[in-house]
Amino acid sequence: MSSQDHRCPALFISAPASGHGKTTITAALARLYRRQGKRVRVFKTGPDFLDPMVLEQASGQPVVNLDLWLGGEDHCRRQVALAAAESDVLLVEGVMGLFDGEPSSADLAQLLGIPIVAVINARGMGQTIGALAQGMLAYRPELQFAGVLANGVASPRHAQMLRQGLQNARPSVPLLTGLQRDMQFALPERHLGLVAAPEIADLDARLDAVAERMSSTSLANLPAQVDFGTPPPERAFPRLLEGKTIAVARDLAFSFIYTANLDLLAQMGAAVAFFSPLADEPLPECDAVWLPGGYPELHLPALQAAQRTRSSLRAHAEAGKPLYAECGGMLFLLETVIAGDGSSGQLCGILPGQATVQPRLQGLGYQTLKLNLPGAVGEHLRCHTFHYSRAVVGAEFIARGERLFDSSEGEVVYRRGQVTASYLHAYFRSAPRTVAALFGGARA
């Protein structure tokens, strides 16, 4: 294909910091364009699991994470270029503030060549918005900016003050629109992220309401086209899981699953069979199990009552079959989990131990992991951790993650028989032979 085949209108939605409303605005734009009959694809910067759920409901299309450290430049460029070839508009939501992190949202926006919309919460701010916007533009002049979207505008007079400040900036910055202050459109949050989309009963009504507000602004018109070029070729992954069936827990308690991880399992030859512990479904016929992260602590009564799921998982582990558990999935394997409100649940007991949800964050950030499993020596699995619980696990630990920007000890990886568990969320593409070893695949 020529690069012409991979042109598409696109915007990169960012902000000076978290809490300015990036996800609400990105979701509203996706819903607005979808209501216009456009094919909308949305991407989320970074390792986040929760924002993509909201963005999927807004756009009606799968949302893929773009993470330069976890996945690499070529993987990010490929995903976006392929989406551009079959979409009418692309939206990318940034993470944290525009320049926060290494790599940052700014790095991704520059790599992809997408103009940035700076969402700024203007509550308690007037003409100073011009100085803030000018600083964002001047910090890295090579970036392209579409303008500012002011969130939380109190009145027409407030909007006039904001516009005046942006006109006084050097260079002047266009005010794309100002959304009036209306808390019913704020998406509810838990910990440092949003509440999962399925838990927000009126999410569609909220998205439709904000989309309606934006339908009379300049953003109702599609942005300028971006040429994403020919997508880089996909890597060739060894088919070390050929003929294997991997059972994957997927429901409201276990929903932290990167789309790229499922794709990698398929590329390596595995078939995936989903099951729901919340629905007390027994394991399907399988060779290995993946228990991804999520919020099991919010569903302790249902998980404690899930006798069929728990007994089939125990039988799987006792038969010496591979079981890999991440974060919330690891909690499900323990004997007891104590939630933040003090309630507790007796869970699988496959790993002896207990986890207790703490009032403060216990782990956050990127880590690399080297597992000396047969066939996987020399690889480094790239991971991310985010959890509020603290676990005491009575199992051998075989490795520790290495923090990317910190010399303190990383997360412990526990192993008992063929059961492997940790707080780490792994990005499978970064170490395919390690993934094959975790799921009992052939050696390279």
UniProtKB/TrEMBL annotation:
Transmembrane segments: none annotated. Pathway: Cofactor biosynthesis; adenosylcobalamin biosynthesis. PROSITE patterns: GATASE_COBBQ. One of its GO terms (molecular function) is cobyrinic acid a,c-diamide synthase activity. SUPFAM superfamilies: Class I glutamine amidotransferase-like, P-loop containing nucleoside triphosphate hydrolases. This is Cobyrinic acid a,c-diamide synthase. Belongs to the CobB/CobQ family. CobQ subfamily. It comes from the Bacteria. GO terms for biological process: cobalamin biosynthetic process. Keywords: ATP-binding, Cobalamin biosynthesis, Glutamine amidotransferase, Ligase, Magnesium, Nucleotide-binding. Its cofactor is Mg(2+). Residues 245-430 form the CobB/CobQ-like glutamine amidotransferase domain. Pfam families: CbiA, GATase_3. The keyword Ribonucleoprotein does not apply. Residues 12-192 form the CobQ/CobB/MinD/ParA nucleotide binding domain. It comes from Herbaspirillum aquaticum. The keyword ATP-binding applies. InterPro entries: CbiA/CobB_synth, Class_I_gatase-like, CobQ/CobB/MinD/ParA_Nub-bd_dom, GATase_3, P-loop_NTPase.
